[in-house]
Amino acid sequence: GELLTNSEASRRQSLRDQAACAAQYLLVVKEMLPSGVASFRLNIDATLKGNVARFFNHSCDGGNMEIYLVRVGGCPVPRVAFFATSLIPSGTELTFSYGLSSPPQHFEHFGRKRRSCACGTTTCNGFLPNEST
């Protein structure tokens, strides 16, 4: 995918929200310090270029994969890697948690409508995680 600055990621997200785009391929990954403060943030837009990971879906129960930041060859910008949490049978949908799936307090968050979740798990809270999670 394409690496974006925070301001460009926000701009593109706003444009897609205004256009009510159903498919969005913006992945925001935050590397957290032990204190809970984000030390690094990657904004990856796979709308025009990316790999098969752009089709991985969200699951409120955590899914069957976990996401990790991996540094290769001393490069300061990490790569995003997905690892299976258990054996995944052939033909199974590949899923991971897009973020903390806490129950929504409001239908809108910072003026943006929350997107409905369709993961279908027993722990589904009805909305996808958002920027604050």
Overview of the molecule:
It is a single chain. With 133 residues, this protein is mainly β. It has a three-stranded antiparallel sheet with strand order 1-3-2. The chain has a two-stranded parallel ribbon with strand order 4-7. Strands 5-6 form a two-stranded antiparallel ribbon.
Keywords:
globular
Identify low-pLDDT runs: 106-111
* Shape summary: globular
Bin the strand percentage.
25-35%
Strand order of the largest sheet: 1-3-2
How many strand elements?
Answer: 9
Q: Helix amount, in percent?
A: under 10%
Distance between the termini: 22 Å
- Using only CA atoms, what is the Rg? 15 Å
H and E string: EHEEEEEEEE
What kind of sheet is the major sheet?
Answer: 3 strands, antiparallel
Detail the topology: elements first, then pairings.
Elements: E1 2-4, H1 6-18, E2 26-32, E3 38-45, E4 57-58, E5 65-70, E6 79-84, E7 95-96, E8 108-109, E9 112-113
Parallel strand pairs: 4-7
Antiparallel strand pairs: 1-3, 2-3, 5-6, 8-9
Q: Could you write a compact summary of the structure shown?
A:
The chain is built from 1 helix and 9 strands; from the N terminus they run βαββββββββ.
